[in-house]
Design brief:
This protein has 188 residues and is mainly beta. The chain folds into 2 domains: 32 residues; 124 residues, Jelly Rolls (Sandwich). The protein has 1 helix and 10 strands. It has a 4-stranded antiparallel β-sheet with strand order 3-10-5-8, with no helix packed on it. It has a 4-stranded antiparallel β-sheet with strand order 4-9-6-7, with no helix packed on it. Strands 1-2 form a two-stranded antiparallel ribbon. The longest helix is centred in the first third of the chain and has 26 residues.
């Protein structure tokens, strides 16, 4: 009986030690190594769909979308590929806040239906915008949007092809946040 009491006491002591150790480690972990909201993300490497490795640092200086759905990039990989046909209007409908002072959107236009492009400056002092025909490397439209200003244009008769909407804050200082809404819709 004394042997059984010693054994139970030993088991109970091991359990108490184990629980205490787990609680101690849970609340005393070094949290300085964790990335917090607002921190710069550490560089990492991933493979894309073609198996090509790319690093986060490869995209430094490119537009960043925060807290928004992913933009569907419908540009063609090769010029000889047929455009993807769909039964609904392809759209970009994004609100962007980029800490690097620039943002870029790509889309492919089939050239059949009218196209409406809208840009709204939602919080930047001012930024330059350009809408480019990527195939011909020519400007379709460009200008400056000051705070709370907007640009909206209906395009009918644009040639089919790849297009880019590029927005940038031009400052002498380091880049500041660019905040804008972009909408591209095909009207049927």
């Amino acid at each position: 009986m004394r042997k059984r009491t010693v054994f139970r006491t030993l088991i109970l002591a091991i359990m108490v030690f184990g629980i205490s150790y787990t609680i101690y480690n849970t609340f005393t972990k070094d949290t300085n190594q964790l990335v917090k909201v607002g921190d710069v993300s550490p560089d990492f490497v991933l493979e894309d769909l073609d198996g090509v490795k790319c690093k986060l640092s490869d995209y430094k200086g490119k537009g960043v979308a925060k807290d928004e759905p992913v933009v569907l990039d419908t540009t063609q990989k090769e010029k000889d590929e047929e455009p993807i046909e769909n039964t609904f209007p392809r759209m970009i409908d994004q609100e962007i806040a980029s800490p690097i002072g620039e943002s870029m959107f790509n889309f492919t236009y089939a050239g059949r239906d009218p196209l409406k492009i809208s840009l709204v400056n939602t919080g930047t002092e001012s930024f330059l915008y350009k809408i480019l025909d990527a195939d011909k490397e020519t400007d379709v439209a460009n200008g400056v949007l000051k705070s709370k200003e907007s640009y909206e244009q209906l395009f009918d008769g644009l040639p089919e092809g790849d297009y880019v909407i590029y927005c940038v804050v031009e400052e002498e200082e380091s880049p500041i946040d660019i905040k804008l809404k972009v909408k591209v819709e095909i009207l049927r």
